[in-house]
Write a structure and sequence with these properties.
two-stranded parallel ribbon, DNA-binding, about 180 residues, globular
Length: about 180
DNA sequence: TAGCAGATACCTT
DNA sequence: AAGGTATCTGCTA
């Protein structure tokens, strides 16, 4: 765990070097508790030990920079969540898409997509911050387990650093990306 | 153009 | 079988 940008960051790695969870919280204790809860079935892995190159990757991602792809542990997410996260990984940096577009593409419903996105175990590595409501407002973001104004501010800052264009409080339609579009 | 319902929708346990 | 949604759409004024 390490501190930066006014937040505590932490990651969790399993015994096969896959990323199990990432998280950032305003206070260290909450982060520790969160990571421990994610690690309940990972014997021998403690959050404090989980620092390697991906710790720095997480920091760079928070600053809006690209990093090398990371192997994720999908073992604890549902099939539906996996389909949503796979799609999220295809959203280019500097672009966003909407819950509705994702749900149409997957043949699901927008609220179900919201639930899956909200339970993303790997924030920043799986860019759930690139999903916004159809109004192109910034939308909700959870930092301490629940959506908050602070979380929404952080989400907007990350998007801006990634190059997403804003007009007042709304995202410019030119930054919108559609899942049906062929991925380069 | 902002604010408010209703949807009988969708996934999870 | 019930409960929880980090939504969307269409209607009001």
């Amino acid at each position: 765990m390490y501190y930066g940008h006014g937040l505590w960051f932490g990651i969790l790695i399993d015994d096969e070097d896959r990323l199990v969870a990432s998280a950032f919280f305003p206070d260290r204790e909450s982060l520790r508790k969160h990571l421990r809860s994610q690690a309940h079935d990972l014997p021998g892995i403690q959050p404090e030990e989980a620092k390697d190159g991906r710790g720095r990757d997480m920091h760079e991602l928070f600053e809006g920079k690209p990093v090398r792809p990371t192997t994720l542990s999908y073992s604890r997410v549902s099939n539906f969540q996996g389909r949503v996260y796979d799609l999220l990984l295809g959203i280019p940096r500097g672009r966003v898409t909407t819950y509705g577009r994702i749900s149409s593409f997957l043949g699901s419903g927008p609220r179900a997509v919201g639930t899956a996105v909200a339970s993303n175990p790997w924030p920043l590595f799986v860019p759930c911050h690139r999903v916004v409501p159809a109004t192109l407002a910034v939308g909700n973001y959870s930092m301490s387990g629940r959506p908050s104004a602070h979380g929404t501010n952080v989400k907007r800052e990350i998007l801006q650093r990634e190059g997403v264009r804003f007009h007042e409080e709304r995202i410019s339609p030119s930054s919108l990306w559609d899942p049906s579009r062929i991925q380069p």
